[in-house]
Every structure is written in structure tokens, then in C-alpha cells.
Amino acid sequence: MTTEPSAYHRRVAEEKRNAILKAATRLFLDSGYAGASLAKIADAAGVSKATLFKQFPTKAALFDAIVTASWETGEDTGERPPVGDLDAGLATIGRRYVALLTRPGMADLFRIVIAELPRFPELGETQFNRGKMPYFESVRGYLETERDAGTITLDDPDLAATQFLGMISNYVFWPRMLLQDWAPDEAAMDRVVDEAVLVMRARYAR
Known about the structure:
The protein is an all-alpha fold. The chain has helices at 7-35, 38-45, 49-55, 59-71, 86-101, 106-116, 121-149, 157-172, 186-204.
């Protein structure tokens, strides 16, 4: 007969998991994916190797968890906007995307993937399949519901989602990968979202 862990033990396990994810992200960035061993990560997180292996039996599983956690929007912010008001819906999605891309550590995560891609191509696949694609699919799904409701004319949902997200990330995120002092203020990022919404309305609204 098995018993469920108590609330205390669940809280302790979650705290240790978060400590492991934080330590692993920092070590991956400082030492590279290859140079950050699970033993070093356990030491940096202040947990035993047995505790780390219980939660993450391989380095790949640990990196997968980091990517998934980094792209999660949370239940309170990740719900699809109501259908029928394209401007409001796209503005909501656009601002969520800005908040996601400017999270602490998001640029660092991309740098890890890019730096290690020649030796570990699976890192790129993880970032794409576990991170970017689920978010992309949620945006595409929203556009499809607007199309089905008759508010927009849409032949290629994939292209439309790429256009919208690309207009935002090209200003908010990608310069950060090369320019250390790139930090546009909130007003500038809001304007980018608003302009992207206007372009989408001009192109797709009925």
C-alpha cells in the first residue's frame, strides 16, 4: 500500500526541483552544456546526487525541463483571448509574448542552445519542440478561431502566426542576442505590439 506524500514533502521536493533548475541553467551558461555535469549541478543546487537523479535521470531530461519551464505562461495568463475582437485579442497575445521574451534567463537559454548546437543538435530540437512550437500553436489556434468566427480571412494560419510573432520578436528579443545594452523601455515595446496589431488587421480583418 502506497501513501501520498504530505504537503510538506511536496513543498520540499518542489523547492529542490526549482533549486536544481536554477543551478543547472547557470552552470549550462557558464560552462556550456558539455561542461556542466550532473554532479556539479547537484553541488551547486545544494542537493545530493541521488535527489537530482531521482528527478532528472539524465542531463537531457534536465534541459528539457528547463526549456519547458521557461516557455510556460501559466494558467492565469495563458488562456486564449475571447473571440470577436481581433485588435484586443492580438494585443493581449502580443503583450504576453513580450513578457515571455523578456523574462530573466530567456535570452541566456537561447545562447546556450546556439553555442552548443554544433555538438548537441538535440538541444535545438528540444528548444523548438518543447518551447517555441507549443506557444506558436496557441497563437495559430487563436487566429483559426477568429477565422471560423468570420472576423478575419485567413488562408495560411502558420504564416499569419509567424508574421505576428516575428514583428514583435524582431524588435524585442533578437537584438538582445548580439547587443548587451539592448533594453527597450515598456512604451517602446507596447508600440511595437500595437503596430503589429494594426498590420495584422490591415492584412486579415474582414
